[in-house]
What does this fold into?
Amino acid sequence: MNNLQAIVFDLDDTLYSERDYVLSGFKAVGNWADVNLGIDRNQGFTTLCNLYHQGVRNNTFNQWLAIHQIENPEVVTKLLNVYREHSPTISPFAESIDLLKTLTKSYKIGLVSDGYLQVQQRKWAALGLDLFFDTVVFSDSLGRENWKPSTAPFKLVLDRLNIPPEFSVYIGDNPRKDFCGARQLGMSTIWVKRSDSEYGDLQPPSLEYHPDLSIDSLSQVLELVRSWD
Ligand SMILES: [Mg+2]
It folds into this structure.
C-alpha cells in the first residue's frame, strides 16, 4: 500500500454495535405493545431480548406474539414498522471516535453502508459522527441491486472523495459482503473481526471475498495505516 489517501468505513458493527440498535428497537416495540396490546413493557422487552440471545433473528416478532397468544399478521407488520421507524438510542464505540479524530487530520474519510435508507439515516443521525466524514453513501439510495457486494457504492464514494481506489482502504465487519466489491475496484480491505460481534464467526464464502488484513479492534487501525505511509 502506497500513499493511502482515503479511509472508508462500514457502519453497522464496525463503528457501533448493531446489538445496541436491536435492543433500542425492542424497547420501542415494547412501549408500543404496552399501549396498544396491553403487554407489560418491561416483560415484553425482556422476552424480546431472550429470543435475541437464543439466536432468533428472522421471525422474532411472530414468535414473541405467539408467546403472548396473539396471532395476527397485521400486528407483525405494525411491530416491524415501529422497529424500523423508531429513533434509535445508540452510541459509537469509544475507539471509533478516538480513531476518527486522528484520521481526519491526515486522510479523507467516507462511509459505505447497506440497509433500508431511512433506517440507516436515522442510525447515522443518532450516532453524531457526520462531522468526521467527507462523504456518506447509503447504498440503498442507488437501489436494492446496488447494496454490497456491488461495486457501485464504492465507486460513488471514491468519485465523491476524488481518490483513486488504489489509494484507499475499506474497513468492515462482514466477510459475506464487505470486501468483494471494494477489492474488485482495487481498494485495500480490512476486516474488523471482533470476537463478540454478529459476523465475527463468519468465513468469506470464496477467495474473492477475503479481506487483505484482519484486526481484532478498530484501535489497531491507526498503527496499521501508519505502517503503510
Ligand atoms: Mg457491518
Q: What stands out?
A: Residues 51 and 60 are 7 Å apart (CA to CA). The pocket of magnesium ion is lined by residues 10, 12-14, 172-174 (CB under 6 Å). The chain has a mean pLDDT of 95. The first strand starts at residue 6 and ends at 9.
